[in-house]
């Protein structure tokens, strides 16, 4: 018997336009609890706008973003991070004096550690 997983995050027909440039045009996706997803594509495919819409840095021009069935796309980035959805940037700067796990746990201080990671780590909390 296959157990159905619960929808954790959903993008429904999401669009994001910048002065006529269609960064995202009708994107739909469901991320279910207990699954792992990757976001790949060529340059110009809309990967950063997708992440920025999901995390609240960009407001979608159309469509909806849901987390646990509740609207996410109307919240500000800090509120979205409090709900467990956050991003990092490519110009990452690690704390050289901390272990790899402690660098990840830095997010926990702000309540932004995703549920999939929240219970996975042991060690000191910052």
Please, could you describe this protein's structure?
With 126 residues, the protein is of the alpha+beta class. The protein has two domains: 1-87, P-loop containing nucleotide triphosphate hydrolases (Rossmann fold, 3-Layer(aba) Sandwich), CATH 3.40.50.300; 89-126, no CATH class. It has four helices and four strands, in the order E-E-H-E-E-H-H-H. It has helices at residues 47-54, 77-82, 100-109, 115-118; strands spanning 7-18, 21-32, 62-67, 70-71. A four-stranded antiparallel beta sheet has the order 2-1-3-4, with helices on one face. Strand 1 (7-18) and strand 2 (21-32) form a beta hairpin. The longest helix has 10 residues, at 100-109.
Give the tags.
alpha+beta, 4 helices, 4 strands, globular
Mean pLDDT: 80
**What is the name of the CATH class of the largest domain?**
Alpha Beta
> Which residues form runs of ≥5 with pLDDT under 50?
116-126
Helix and strand composition category = alpha+beta
CATH names the topology of the largest domain as Rossmann fold
Major pleated sheet: 4 strands, antiparallel
CATH superfamily of the largest domain: P-loop containing nucleotide triphosphate hydrolases
- Based on CA atoms alone, the radius of gyration comes out at 16 Å
Cα shape = globular
Strand arrangement in the largest pleated sheet: 2-1-3-4
The helix-strand sequence is EEHEEHHH
What number of structural domains do the residues give? 2
Strand segment count:
4
Helix content: 10-25%
Alpha-carbon distance between the termini?
Answer: 42 Å
In the CATH classification, which architecture of the largest domain applies? 3-Layer(aba) Sandwich
Tell me the β content.
Answer: 25-35%
Number of helices: 4
């Amino acid at each position: 018997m296959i157990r159905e997983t619960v929808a954790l995050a959903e993008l429904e027909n999401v669009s994001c336009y910048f002065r006529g440039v269609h960064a995202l045009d009708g994107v739909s996706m469901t991320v279910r609890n207990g699954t792992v997803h990757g976001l790949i594509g060529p340059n110009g495919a809309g990967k950063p706008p997708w992440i920025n819409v999901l995390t609240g840095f960009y407001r979608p021009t159309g469509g909806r973003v849901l987390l646990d069935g509740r609207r996410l796309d109307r919240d500000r980035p800090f509120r979205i991070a409090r709900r467990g959805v956050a991003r990092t940037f490519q110009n990452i700067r690690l704390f050289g004096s901390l272990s790899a796990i402690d660098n990840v746990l830095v997010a926990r201080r702000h309540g932004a550690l995703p549920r999939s990671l929240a219970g996975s780590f042991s060690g000191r909390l910052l």
